[in-house]
Amino acid sequence: MSMKISGAPCCWGVDNPKNPYLPPWERVLKEASEAGYSGMELGPYGYIPMELEKVAGVLAENKLNIIAGTIFDDLVSEENFQNLIGQTHDICGMVTKLPQPPQEEGQRFKTPYLVVIDWGHDGRDYAAGHPDRAPRLNKEAWNRMMDHIRAIAKLAWETYGVRTVVHPHAGGYIEFADEIDQVAKDIPQEVAGLCLDTGHLYYSKMDPIEWLLKYKDRIDYLHFKDIDRKVYDEVMNEKIRFFDACAKGVMCPIGKGVLPYEDIHRTLQEMGYAGYITVEQERDPRNVETSLRDVKASRDYLASVGFD
């Protein structure tokens, strides 16, 4: 069984496609290839254009496959539901026609995946990382969000053959231990899997190894990141949005922070995890000149501890 490392545009500061400082997507793909990656996520909806032939050509030029597309949006509001359905059609219709990596032995579902993340709520954004003070959804709103996720997953699988994975994310309404447990109860394994993120788990006061083991039968895909403990301690004492904390450098190259990746590698081997793992290092896109250096450092470090 092998664990293949892939990349994501957020390592170049690409989280909000409307940010005026984003680098050209062609540069991101070129530098990912230069750093030694063979797989990439599509990034947030609206960043890489929905122009199939053009995007496929740039991927082929850089010897890159597509690992996943992402819905990073408000999953709660009823008025946003049709927008979510439209994104599902667009993203799945695109990623299934782009260059694909082979399915690894032991990998439960073939790439590409549809990563689904709740986002866009000020009350939760400013409470990221603070389970004790973050407001929770009431039962009606939570159930509506679960209905939306189930509908997205059903559409993605039945129409496009794309496996949906739910990504708990700092600053969204699926972040903390109680919410991850509830998602696992409300979204059956046959409907969608989990994409756990080591950095978000740590940021939100959970032990990544403990949670990898807890949901080893539900995890179809993983994200890796690392955290600068000094910056983390500082931002935990501020009223700050999650991505503003990232702009301060709370996420650092893998191997230079607090997460124990040798132990994580050993844990994943014991779990029998096989397939793809995507490196992320959210940052201010105005610091893009150090992105290539950092993504290469993360890739090289993970290779040194046993990842492919």
Automatic annotation (TrEMBL):
Stored InterPro entries: IolE/XylAMocC-like, Xyl_isomerase-like_sf, Xyl_isomerase-like_TIM-brl
Pfam annotation, one family: AP_endonuc_2
Xylose isomerase-like TIM barrel domain mapped to chain residues: 30-293
Source domain of life: Bacteria
Protein name in the entry: TIM barrel protein
Native source species: Anaerotalea alkaliphila
SUPFAM superfamilies: Xylose isomerase-like (SSF51658)
